[in-house]
Amino acid sequence: MTTATLIHWIDNHDTAAPTTENADGTLTVSSWCVRTNLPVDHPDRVFMERVVIPATLSAARDLLCY
To answer: For strand 46-54 and strand 20-21, is the pairing parallel, antiparallel, or unpaired?
Structure first.
């Protein structure tokens, strides 16, 4: 699988922002997260988290819980 195909596959899982290819063979993947301890209307309840993973299908599957 090419890196472009892997990025497309990851981004088809409704990521918070487009996946970024880094120059060191890694990818930056963004996800929406929810702080359940905050009230529903709190402005900081939902936030974007970025995770750097190796540019491999195995790492992407682990991140996406496959």
So the answer is: unpaired
